[in-house]
Request: fold
Amino acid sequence: MRTGVWLVGARGSVATTSIVGALALRAGLTGPTGCVTELPELRGPALPSFADLVFGGHDPVATPLAKRADALAAAGVLPARLVAALGAELAAVDHEVRPAPADGSQADRAAAVVADLTAFRDRHRLDRVVVVNVSATEPAAPPHPAHTDPDALAAALAGPDEVLPASSLYAYAAFTAGCPYVDFTPSTGARLPALETLAARHGLPYAGHDGKTGETLVKSVLAPMFAMRHLTVRSWSGANLLGGGDGANLADPDANAAKVRSKDRLLGEILGYVPQGHTRIDYVEDLGDFKTAWDLVTFAGFLGTPMRMEFTWHGCDSALAAPLVLDLARLTAAAHAAGRRGPLADLAFFFKDPLAAPTHSLAEQWDRLARFTAALHAEHGGAA
Amino acid sequence: MRTGVWLVGARGSVATTSIVGALALRAGLTGPTGCVTELPELRGPALPSFADLVFGGHDPVATPLAKRADALAAAGVLPARLVAALGAELAAVDHEVRPAPADGSQADRAAAVVADLTAFRDRHRLDRVVVVNVSATEPAAPPHPAHTDPDALAAALAGPDEVLPASSLYAYAAFTAGCPYVDFTPSTGARLPALETLAARHGLPYAGHDGKTGETLVKSVLAPMFAMRHLTVRSWSGANLLGGGDGANLADPDANAAKVRSKDRLLGEILGYVPQGHTRIDYVEDLGDFKTAWDLVTFAGFLGTPMRMEFTWHGCDSALAAPLVLDLARLTAAAHAAGRRGPLADLAFFFKDPLAAPTHSLAEQWDRLARFTAALHAEHGGAA
Amino acid sequence: MRTGVWLVGARGSVATTSIVGALALRAGLTGPTGCVTELPELRGPALPSFADLVFGGHDPVATPLAKRADALAAAGVLPARLVAALGAELAAVDHEVRPAPADGSQADRAAAVVADLTAFRDRHRLDRVVVVNVSATEPAAPPHPAHTDPDALAAALAGPDEVLPASSLYAYAAFTAGCPYVDFTPSTGARLPALETLAARHGLPYAGHDGKTGETLVKSVLAPMFAMRHLTVRSWSGANLLGGGDGANLADPDANAAKVRSKDRLLGEILGYVPQGHTRIDYVEDLGDFKTAWDLVTFAGFLGTPMRMEFTWHGCDSALAAPLVLDLARLTAAAHAAGRRGPLADLAFFFKDPLAAPTHSLAEQWDRLARFTAALHAEHGGAA
Amino acid sequence: MRTGVWLVGARGSVATTSIVGALALRAGLTGPTGCVTELPELRGPALPSFADLVFGGHDPVATPLAKRADALAAAGVLPARLVAALGAELAAVDHEVRPAPADGSQADRAAAVVADLTAFRDRHRLDRVVVVNVSATEPAAPPHPAHTDPDALAAALAGPDEVLPASSLYAYAAFTAGCPYVDFTPSTGARLPALETLAARHGLPYAGHDGKTGETLVKSVLAPMFAMRHLTVRSWSGANLLGGGDGANLADPDANAAKVRSKDRLLGEILGYVPQGHTRIDYVEDLGDFKTAWDLVTFAGFLGTPMRMEFTWHGCDSALAAPLVLDLARLTAAAHAAGRRGPLADLAFFFKDPLAAPTHSLAEQWDRLARFTAALHAEHGGAA
Ligand SMILES: NC(=O)c1ccc[n+]([C@@H]2O[C@H](COP(=O)([O-])OP(=O)(O)OC[C@H]3O[C@@H](n4cnc5c(N)ncnc54)[C@H](O)[C@@H]3O)[C@@H](O)[C@H]2O)c1
Ligand SMILES: NC(=O)c1ccc[n+]([C@@H]2O[C@H](COP(=O)([O-])OP(=O)(O)OC[C@H]3O[C@@H](n4cnc5c(N)ncnc54)[C@H](O)[C@@H]3O)[C@@H](O)[C@H]2O)c1
Ligand SMILES: NC(=O)c1ccc[n+]([C@@H]2O[C@H](COP(=O)([O-])OP(=O)(O)OC[C@H]3O[C@@H](n4cnc5c(N)ncnc54)[C@H](O)[C@@H]3O)[C@@H](O)[C@H]2O)c1
Ligand SMILES: NC(=O)c1ccc[n+]([C@@H]2O[C@H](COP(=O)([O-])OP(=O)(O)OC[C@H]3O[C@@H](n4cnc5c(N)ncnc54)[C@H](O)[C@@H]3O)[C@@H](O)[C@H]2O)c1
Ligand code: NA
Ligand code: NA
Reply:
């Protein structure tokens, strides 16, 4: 099952780490640490292998992937020896990264994306292409009347307005080109009625939002712990310090607000009430691609006794995100092959702010993911 | 369903907090925070109500419960107003706390315990008495040939040797008196073949070991998180600082070793390998009934990138333990009423070192507990 | 040396804790923990004794001190037994707390404060009255042309404008009444040219700004450590979570900004460069009078090796501040008695943002304080 | 002033980092971050320049320095580009590292060390050689009657006994060869009456013990902070996790005990009382040359209010130690040149367990160091 993975933001940290990692796995130079789909509970025949994956993407920036990879190696994100060993393979992927279309109406730009996707699929004789958005987080998009209906949307895109934020324009183009779409960012992406209808028309699955890699991952197991023990969480405060491209982008208050909102939903839904406290994101250039999150939880036990817990998470965001990008591409490709359509709620395990949010508890999300994957394997086996 | 709760170590911190809490709940002076069996998912008709519980127990120490409770209030464990309001009720329980039998052969002491249990059950016309061990942690017990067989055991107890550690002698007496037995401590308790056979002969359920209240509770959700994400835990180190009676007792190296062993099993079983690192327990008198645990976890992600997490847990051990003691008494009473027998593996949720350890993942333990409780309620409903 | 201590904000947490503590010390009910002036290195004859101190003050709020003290006892700030034992003494101080003047022009209000101060001094036959501002932090004050000259200021105050922020109006009144003034808050206080001239005219000393009690105290020893070791601090980020009245007030963005500015000066001055990073203050009601500060410091060592340090401070702000308020009142009274005038730079030890900031290193501040106090004692001894 | 730096343990992590760093400084490839003697307050003409330093040493291990340096680069301790650039220079130093003498009586071994030192000094026409012990920490040495007198010692060394631990045998040889001696480890070194007398006879200065690089450095500023604020430290507990060669060595309980003792003296001396709590050192291989220390301090403020502070230090031990080794070599050489003799108490700034311990407060140690260095520069200027 030859599968295209088209990365929007293909020269960013997450994308570069995903590409280097997949190439290294294919070459047998590394193991699948961090790849959830390689766990015994999920592994199986329905998923394309790493060797089946072909990478391409869009990015406005032109820095060669090998140069980005060198920088990530210097920052301790990638092993320098891997980057050195994969020079030729990285150069090959470089040819498949197109400049992000920037001219003409939004309809023109969408058409250019569709053309890029179609040409990529044809050129490599791919069974399908999964589009994954790993570009910079956008500010929350302003509403527009054409957001509710695909036909109104098509008409509006041809006009002079910026009708859609970039993430949604990519989703529009992906669906138009018959490609499933995954949003790894908190941006709007496919979350507009017009796009949901469009995906349905084309019978396409999609997934999102916002890869769950650090503080929220920990929250998704700690909050259920407090709930299962009937302990009352009085406050939950978080400080997130991060450098890197994503950190610089989040220094913009609007992007920051979008990210915080995406992080904040979880507690209320798991606990059944919203504890006091705030989540902050601050840019600290010196941290590079690493993120330090510190959380303080105050809680009350039996007879109201006050207690507290704090944790510090010091993670490399790109190294945490990249294997999930590969997992999502493989799972979404398999879902598409199996005829799944609409929002893939069973992939909630991977997201801070999951579509159709069935649950925010990691353990429950895991159970759903395991059942979902088992079904794909069973169907695939049946079909084989 | 009038249910006796017989606490071994009835004047200790955990016992006193359990008793004050149950009396306060019965009087409507407090809510059930921390009581797992009061969560909507577990609540139901099969469990005795708080008003159904009658307390008694053994302790070598004679300090009145009200005095212990005052000390716990001064230490911030209990609200002073509750202790003040419950003076009469506490005095009533005081009459049901017997000195721990200390004279004669172990057979004589076991007989004295049986007599106390039987008299208590009769005096209060109780449907059953659940014996819960919350006494000081013992050093690991030396093996003895009579540990494998109930008849050999009965014979040996009549002799001059200290054949059984105290926790096991209480289990022996409990089973002999027809009482289910719960071990909230890491001590040997019912974990001897002779006692398991004895419980089977009497058709009795039992549960244990070592209430899971702090660092291990957190581990039981964090370790599965690393496992579900296919992240490699390189090391996991823990420093536990605690004061209070339990802390003083654990300053004894042998008791400490028993406790650490009980804490250490979890990681290997959840992760499938044993990471580097040590767990330490140190006595720091100034911490009183609070415990501070600090854990450092180093882990490797995609392509081997090294990352780290640390957490500090600052919990009031008795306030965390007491509602679980009530939960265990209620659940074990209901299990007994429903004819369950043998080790209650479905209560693993409550223990650091669960009997018949089906799993150490808190989420999976929760699922088992929920199914177990639902079955009890369903049977009870059917019977009603 | 009978000394009045006039607290602006006399019913707040810091003021109430100061009063209860001084009364308890006088009554021999507690020891001088936290009182710097009771250390062997500083103690001596020039300072008024605790028994010499007489309390009064202004506050717009009318809650009796005993009620505020009860609330602080419930919150774990004050021992309940002390509050109970000091009922009569607290009621006596209550009579000396006046409503904050609120009517008329600012000149009228200043005159009312002068009258209150003078009457208090006379009524109690005090040698002097030290005015200490412990009221809520103000937003930064807008500039006004009359701020540069005392005569222009006197004229402007008689007009309809709010020429001075409250803290400065109190400083104006204090100086007019011949009283030294201490600002324990980050508010403007005496920091206006007109007020500095006024203090000089009256030959009065004054001190400030912003009592150093938590994160900044720690910074004032850690930053010199990095400097003395020639380690390069790359970033220093701080998250401050606090409840209580001060916390609620700081939830106001302007007051917050004033406080953060006052905290931020230190690093640049000690290190000689400003590292990356931000200081945040967030209100978390559940923390009550306690504050949790978390700081992350990243630094580079030999050959650029990156390292990191983090600390969590969990302090009771009022309990840390109150003994310093007493120290400052005693030291400022002694300085006044010894004829010191102008800004007391030697009291920098006590402040986040010291007047005439000679140094921010705590150890150097300590040396200055010790020399300053020794001189006062020596002169006093000579005079005796 | 051509100065030899003779490193006992010359192939260890600290030694290798010191050598690479000095060579890089000499070649202008790096800056003096971490070098205290390069601060404006200490810099000056009395100290040998980096270009004046010539390295040699003893080690039983034969691994070439370049190989050790490569390993340290892979572990993130040294920048790989520095190691690559300094290949020739490292090979040159390699020729000056001799196998640690292992045969014959202790007198024979001492004579071999003396011969190595003398030949090194002559071969390079050095003004002097400073011997610095950076070898593995020894267990505490058993007492021996010959430890009190140099002549008895000389006699005993010729016999078959292991009279001196290795660190002391090196000190003996250094003094015999007319070389000042610095002990960067907690081992016995020069701390025996016989050796002190010997140093005095030869008019030699010496310094030690145990370089202060992590937890203890932080303690030496935090403990004075609590003392200066008259806050009562109730408990101070520390967990030290470290990998690397030093960590593996400290896994040995006896070496561990020596190290803990050396760390524990400080608190009692700064605070005037010994708080509760323990210091633990645990080996965690995965941490490599980095050390994570976690400390919990509980303290009481005004009216006894309980508070707490914790810190985590994550430092690269070798990168912290190496510049201090260079500082100590330069300062001790200058002291020798200036005719200082006996224990250099003014170098306490550098040590966990300083000789003639004048004070443990870092700020006071800094003041002494600055005065000491200023005097050396002044004398040197006078002499020039
Ligand atoms: N790393 C994580 O752990 C993590 C977790 C969840 C979500 N995310 C999200 O993933 C995204 C990428 O993160 P990153 O660290 O790689 O950021 P990055 O800044 O390194 O990369 C973003 C890339 O997107 C490109 N880009 C910007 N606008 C674009 C456009 N219109 N079309 C195509 N490309 C565009 C940029 O040129 C850049 O190369 C962010 O939105 C981040 O919030 C990351
Ligand atoms: N508090 C927690 O979070 C927690 C969690 C898990 C397990 N535990 C275990 O619970 C037990 C009780 O803890 P605690 O804090 O109440 O300790 P504690 O020291 O306050 O109380 C123990 C009591 O047991 C009594 N005792 C000692 N020997 C006895 C005997 N032979 N027969 C009857 N009573 C005896 C003592 O007199 C004392 O009153 C400990 O074993 C502890 O390890 C506690
Ligand atoms: N607690 C600390 O550690 C600490 C440290 C440094 C500075 N401070 C400063 O001390 C001040 C007091 O802190 P707190 O915790 O007691 O706050 P609080 O809110 O408990 O008390 C402030 C009091 O000031 C009174 N007030 C408000 N406006 C006034 C006015 N115009 N005239 C007179 N009184 C007025 C309020 O009614 C209140 O009673 C704050 O400015 C705080 O920033 C406190
Ligand atoms: N790194 C720090 O921050 C720091 C701080 C204070 C003290 N120290 C001390 O410095 C010493 C060195 O630390 P390290 O990390 O370099 O350890 P390491 O294990 O890397 O190096 C020790 C070296 O000493 C050598 N050695 C052992 N016995 C010897 C002998 N008899 N003669 C000569 N050499 C011998 C070993 O072969 C090894 O090469 C330790 O004692 C440590 O406790 C280190
Ligand atoms: Na921490
Ligand atoms: Na912490």
Remarks:
- Chain A is about 45% helix and 15% strand.
- Residues 166 and 189 of chain A are 8 Å apart (CA to CA).
